[in-house]
From TrEMBL:
Gene source species: Parabacteroides absconsus
Residues engaged in binding S-adenosyl-L-methionine: 36-38, 69, 110-112
Pathway recorded for this protein: Purine metabolism; 7-cyano-7-deazaguanine biosynthesis
Keyword Lyase in record: yes
Enzyme class: lyase
Cofactor entry: S-adenosyl-L-methionine; Mg(2+); [4Fe-4S] cluster
Role summary: Catalyzes the complex heterocyclic radical-mediated conversion of 6-carboxy-5,6,7,8-tetrahydropterin (CPH4) to 7-carboxy-7-deazaguanine (CDG), a step common to the biosynthetic pathways of all 7-deazapurine-containing compounds.
Lineage summary: Bacteria, Pseudomonadati, Bacteroidota, Bacteroidia, Bacteroidales
Annotated positions binding [4Fe-4S] cluster: 30, 34, 37
Protein name as annotated: 7-carboxy-7-deazaguanine synthase
Pfam families: Radical_SAM
Radical SAM core domain boundaries: 17-181
Signal peptide per UniProt: none
Note on how the cofactor is bound: Binds 1 S-adenosyl-L-methionine per subunit.
Length: 181
């Protein structure tokens, strides 16, 4: 059984796959407590894999995004294999502090100062608070490096930073701007 906060269908609002229709599976609970966290994830219902796969199978989109909370607390090869059997492309949003199953198709790591132990990262996506040196995260091996304004509040500051450090790209939380989930 896995503890799930919510399952919803929307567009990926952030990062490389922005705009892509996806089913979000938000797992409950986290091993970190970021002061800026924009998500209520503590509440949850227990679901077995058959129930999870049934909701996934009913979604027309190919992309499934595992998030939370911290999804790495809850997932294993069996869950990912089942999603692949349904023909899905499996993405994860993780803080990088725990390993994730190797079969996941797209790994987004949003580091939070704690050591990152991932074997593979596709995109690094850092919440820009203005309070930490984000350049340390450029040392993580990845294909893409994104900075994301914190709660849509400091977009100008992030744009200014990226123009001076053009190895980064801008990730907007587009779902918040257009008021979808
Ligand atoms: C809620 S987290 C869940 C997944 C995982 N725990 C993590 O932090 O990557 C999903 C994404 O939202 C980002 N995020 C959380 N709070 C935010 C905020 N106030 N503004 C912008 N992005 C935020 C995280 O950095 C992460 O990329
Ligand atoms: N639309 C939408 N896109 C997202 N991308 C990552 C999200 C997350 O909370 O992990 C998220 C979210 O909560 N909503
Ligand atoms: S690691 Fe992710 S879910 Fe956990 S508190 Fe930080 S932003 Fe929120
Ligand atoms: Mg979110």
């Amino acid at each position: 059984m896995r503890k799930i906060n919510e399952i919803f269908y929307s567009l990926q609002g952030e990062g490389f796959h922005t705009g892509t229709p996806a089913l979000f599976i938000r797992f409950s609970g986290c091993n970190l407590k970021c002061p800026f966290c924009d998500t209520q994830h503590e509440e949850g219902r227990w679901m077995d894999d058959e129930a999870i796969w049934a909701e996934v199978a009913a979604c027309p989109a190919r992309m499934v995004i595992l998030t939370g909370g911290e999804p790495s607390l809850w997932i294993d090869d069996a869950l990912i294999d089942g999603l692949h059997r349904l023909g899905k492309y499996v993405c994860i949003e993780t803080n990088g502090t725990r390993k994730v199953p190797a079969g996941i198709d797209w790994v987004t790591c949003s580091p939070k100062g704690a050591p990152v132990v991932l074997d593979r990262i596709d995109e690094v996506k850092v919440v820009f608070t203005g309070e930490e040196d984000v350049e340390v995260y450029r040392q993580l091996p990845a294909k893409q490096y994104y900075l994301q304004p914190c709660s849509c509040r400091n977009t100008e500051e992030v744009v200014d930073y990226i123009l001076k450090h053009p190895e980064w790209r801008l990730s907007l939380q587009t779902h918040k701007w257009i008021q979808i989930r």
